[in-house]
């Protein structure tokens, strides 16, 4: 199977799995993946992640211009911003996942590190997650806000909208965004219950042992 054929199938399989588990609903969420020839596969605009057709995934050239398949998601500037600022990015996943969106709306969060230190995998797979302001859908300033982080963050949470996570490949990005959603869920489940967070020393030990960008 060619790299492109496999990538098209993986995108559809991962997207359907996320949709089936309620990680994004309706026609929300999108995925992009960089191929080794420098071109990109991107999920189409208006498509549901539960019902993607591998043959209709949008194909973009190295400058993110449309060269095949359906028209791409209008949230493409978000994806491009990660590829442009983080050379190690092989895929980007964006969801409208409920718990992450809820967390983005709570008062008293630290915008530079919006996820509370609850589990080692949340820290290992995501590093610090940046909370970005609310932007209208399709606003180019979303991409500018990601560029403004100068590649220092692999994961951001758009206020009142949802997370965007970059990874070295599609599986890494998918696993990381699921970790973000699960940590947000834990934060909401334990809100007001005085949960015992990981201590600064425990967080630092995880960062050191697993070489996390922090
Ligand atoms: Zn979105």
Structure description:
The chain has 214 residues and is of the alpha+beta class. It has a single domain (3-209), classed as Class II aldolase/adducin N-terminal domain (L-fuculose-1-phosphate Aldolase), CATH 3.40.225. The chain is built from 7 helices and 8 strands. The protein has helices spanning 3-20, 76-85, 98-104, 120-126, 141-147, 170-189, 200-209, and strands at residues 30-34, 40-42, 58-60, 66-68, 91-94, 130-132, 155-158, 162-167. An 8-stranded mixed beta sheet has the order 4-3-2-1-5-8-7-6, with helices on both faces. Strand 3 and strand 4 form a beta hairpin. The longest helix is centred in the C-terminal third of the chain and has 20 residues, at 170-189. The radius of gyration is 17 Å and the shape is globular. The chain binds zinc ion.
